[in-house]
Amino acid sequence: MFFSQLIGTSMGCVITPLVFWIFNNAYQLGDLVGAYPAPYALMYRGIALLGVEGFGSLPKHCLRLSIWLFLAAILINLMTQLLEKFETKYRIYRFIPSPMCMAILFYLGGYFAIDMCVGSLLLFIWQRYDKQLAKYFGPAVASGLICGDSLWGIPTSVLALAGVKAPFCLKVGHGAGIQIELKENGSGIANQRLFRSKAIPKGATTLTP
Q1: Which helix (H) or strand (E) holds 181?
Q2: Global pTM?
Q3: Cα dihedral sign, 171-113-23-152
């Protein structure tokens, strides 16, 4: 086991800087509207600013909102525990959302929340079909999906470094609906079934008129 850890650590010392170099050259890391917004970096930056400049560095009403949400999370968890203990007929506690799960969306972004939603839905269907099999193989399948999603970032970075661009790009923007940037075909005509929106920059189209 010691030699396995030694080999794994040695590989990480070589592979990790190379992967970071590829991503750093292919994408703009830390861009809030980019492919890799680096949410943990922003979170630690906020903690550092808070420690140096105090609460005055926070946006307006941010501290008040954080306090209220902190108290709301405590009350929701307390209510869930009480209902689980005393209300056993309808088991309403199952339908109360978890504050921790709701918080994931705010600091990791929508792409991660969508992956979790799809994975949870697949696991729910699997449990309805074969609960015993899902219990034993669910974590393994989830680990494989997570690793596959992470590993796919390497070939996409290599393609981006090579200048390869996708024929279209799907984006979900704030207040602009779902945007699709299309390249013109040989005749110079884009998909006529898509409608242009005033809220979207020139050159992009949207699914909604």
Answers
A1: strand 177-182
A2: 0.52
A3: negative
